[in-house]
Amino acid sequence: AAYGSLPGGVSIEVSGLSYTYPGSNEPVLKNINFTLEPGESLAIVGYNGSGKSTLAKILLRIVDFDKGSLKVNGVDGFSKFNATVRENVGLGYVEQLTEDAAIAKAVHLAEADKVVESLPCGLRTTLESPGFESISYPGMGHRAHSSHHGLSGGEWQRIAIARAFMRASRPEVDLLLFDEPTSSLDARAQSQIFDTIEKISRSPSGKKMKSVIFITHRLSTARRADKVAMMENGTISEFGTHQELLGRNGSYANLYRASV
Ligand code: ADP
Description:
Blueprint: E1 12-19, E2 29-36, E3 42-46, H1 52-59, E4 67-72, H2 83-88, E5 91-94, H3 99-109, H4 115-118, H5 121-128, H6 153-168, E6 175-179, H7 187-200, E7 211-215, H8 219-222, E8 227-232, E9 235-240, H9 242-248, H10 251-259
Parallel strand pairs: 3-7, 3-8, 5-6, 6-7
Antiparallel strand pairs: 1-2, 1-4, 8-9
The protein binds adenosine-5'-diphosphate (ADP).
The site of adenosine-5'-diphosphate has 11 residues, from helix 1.
C-alpha cells in the first residue's frame, strides 16, 4: 500500500472544508467535517444535488477545495498540483455508470470476440479457477467463454464494473471510492456487488486492507458501512453509525424508513 506503514487502510481527517464551483456564487460544500479511522468504511447518502459527488471528487483530488483541510494518514497538503504526492496516493475509483456508458466502455475494450478476452487477466484467472473465490464477479462466470455478441446491456455493465474492480483490487490501492457504481442494477445485483467490495477490501484472512467510501442512494446498502454521512444542501447534517443515526430520528431515519 502507498501508505505502507499503517495496516488496514487509511485515516482521513476533513475539517472546515468548503468549495464553490468556478462561476457559481453559491458554495456547493459548506464547512464539511468528519474523521475516519484506518479501515473504517463510510457511506455517503443524501438527496440529489446535496454535494455527494463533489465531496467524492475532492477526496479523489479531481477538484480542489477553497477552504479547510484534508489529511490522509495525518499528511496535509494533499494538493492536486503536487504530482509526487498524487502518484503515491493509492486510490481506486469506480465511477457511476449509466447502462449506455457501460456498454460504450465495454464494447470499446472488447477487442476479441470472447467475453473472457475482454476481462482483465486477473479476473480471467479467477473465472477459470475451480474455486472462483478470490474476486468472483457475480453473474458472469457462466459467460466466460461465450461470444460477446448478444450480451445484454446489464451484462456489459457488469463487465465494465468488473474491470474497475480489478483495478481497485491492486495491492497498492488503499482507499477505494465508489460513486453509485450500481445505480442501474437491481437490488440483488447491488447486494452481490457490495459483497465483492467487501472482499476486495479485505485480505484472504478477513483483515481489512483498504478503506472504502461509497456513495449510495440505497439506504439498504448504506447500513453495511461502519459510518454514514448524511448530506443535505452542501453540509453533513448527520454523521455516525447506522444505528446512531436511526436513533436520532432525523433526516436519515426518515429517509431510511421511507426506503424499507
Ligand atoms: P450529488 O452527488 O449529491 O447529486 P453533486 O455533488 O453532483 O451532488 O452536485 C451538487 C451541486 O453542485 C448541484 O447543485 C450541481 O448542480 C452542482 N454541480 C455539480 N457539478 C458541477 C460543476 N461541474 N459546475 C457547477 N456546478 C456543479
